[in-house]
Design goal:
Layout: H1 20-31, H2 37-44, H3 48-60, E1 80-87, H4 93-104, E2 109-114, E3 121-127, H5 130-143, E4 148-153
Antiparallel strand pairs: 1-3, 1-4, 2-3
Helix pairs in contact: 1-2, 2-3
């Protein structure tokens, strides 16, 4: 059984009830977090202060983790996206802590997930090219023992979004 890694996100998980206005606010923010409070209030049909209070409560509840700018990897010369499948024979806490530290220190790792099944971890690694990926790979295996690594080069991004589906009020 794979040892559980410490949480990457760190936000508290609560069961927060969303009403229609909350869902509209979240949809707007996921589409464009740079909207002004006035613009959000206008689009949801509410005044500014109640909208601000709702956003504050959504942040405090951990529903809104943070606001970021989404950059274009190609505009930055990061044209190669690799999905890296990792199997390990190590499952102790010391190894897991070293592995997590290695991932956190590498900005080219833009996603990392621990999996159920035959593969232990999957990483999404964004780099300039195959040579840059190889440098990443050599560095990672030099730092932590890994049983097997398979790298898959994405030929084309078909869909990418950071927007989550927002559940309606029914369960």
């Amino acid at each position: 059984m794979t040892e559980q890694l410490p949480q990457i996100s760190g936000s508290p998980k609560t069961n927060f009830r969303l009403d229609e206005v909350d869902r509209k606010i979240l949809s707007l923010l996921q589409e464009d977090a740079s909207l002004s409070l006035d613009q959000i209030a206008d689009r949801v049909g509410a005044s500014k202060t109640p909208v601000w209070n709702r956003i504050r409560k959504l942040r405090e509840a951990g529903v809104i983790r943070r606001q970021v700018a989404i950059l274009d990897p190609e505009a930055l010369g990061l044209e190669a996206c690799f999905f890296v499948l990792i199997r390990t024979s190590e499952h102790d806490k010391t190894w897991a802590a070293r592995f997590l530290k290695a991932l956190r220190e590498r900005p080219e790792v833009i996603e990392a997930h621990r999996l159920a099944g035959d593969i232990d971890y999957i990483l999404k690694v964004q780099v300039r090219n195959a040579r840059a990926y190889d440098r990443f790979y050599q560095s990672l295996i030099g730092e932590v023992k890994i049983h097997n690594v398979t790298a898959l080069l994405s030929m084309e991004e078909i869909k990418a979004t950071s927007a989550l589906p927002i559940p309606d009020g029914t369960r």
